[in-house]
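Researcher: Re-running this chain for the archive, since the previous output was lost when a drive failed. Same request as before.
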Amino acid sequence: MEVGSWKGSGLPSRPPQLPSLVTGPSLDTARAHMLALGPQRLLAQDEEGDTFLHLFAARGLRWAAYAAAEVLQKYRHLDIREHKGKTPLLVAAAANQPLIVEDLLNLGAEPNATDHQGRSVLHVAATYGLPGVLSAVINSGVRVDLEARDFEGLTPLHTAILALNVAMVSPDPCPRVLSIQARDRLSCVQMLLHMGADHTSQEIKSNKTVLHLAVQAANTILVQLLLELPQGDLRAFVNMKAHGNTALHMAAALPPGPHQEAIVRHLLAAGADPALRNLENEQPIHLLRPGPGPEGVSIE
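Model: Regenerated structure tokens:
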């Protein structure tokens, strides 16, 4: 049979259950098992579109996944999709299997493949806070689209910021100890920035930058991190508008308290312009709410 000549017609509608023999201790053993299974069984999909490779990737069976991927690569089906549009690479990423992610990329899996929600491997890692998956992408040396947008108009960096905001909801504006989940999601933000993600990009629905998203969530740690990035024009970044509102407008509208005070202070120190007006002709000071203290927040 010639490479690439196999067709999917006439195959069983689903691959059988995972045979126990695929859990062998070495790649050579796994290759022998894949040879025994044959290409038709390896290329067959079940009612949810999963192949053996999808199942191996989801369960972290590295050598079985590698050997199966070699077969699918030979027949040009390495990026075959299951019912939600996930390629084996995306399944491996969602299952937090960095070694399999790196293997699949090295074997030629499409690094910018997306699922039915437009999410790439970077979006998946950002959503679930999986720094190991991002490390695998980096280690593979493949070129990935850091500015790819999912169907919500979000880049991987936007996604990572939103995920971190959820993990850092806390009454303490500057917690000394972050949860494991928050640390992992913060690592993803830092790694995406290190990879070259554009911190000035604006999400499509409301034109917010990552700074707007961080301020809106009163995420003091993240605001400080973004303002300390090496960038050409910090003042221009700080004063970017999202539907007319700067980050300082959003900070002024936060509930009074230590979160708001710290964020306003950081923004002003970074060059936020308190004289800028939004679409309602309001300056940030007009959005301040009465605070619990005798003086409240000063914006000047």
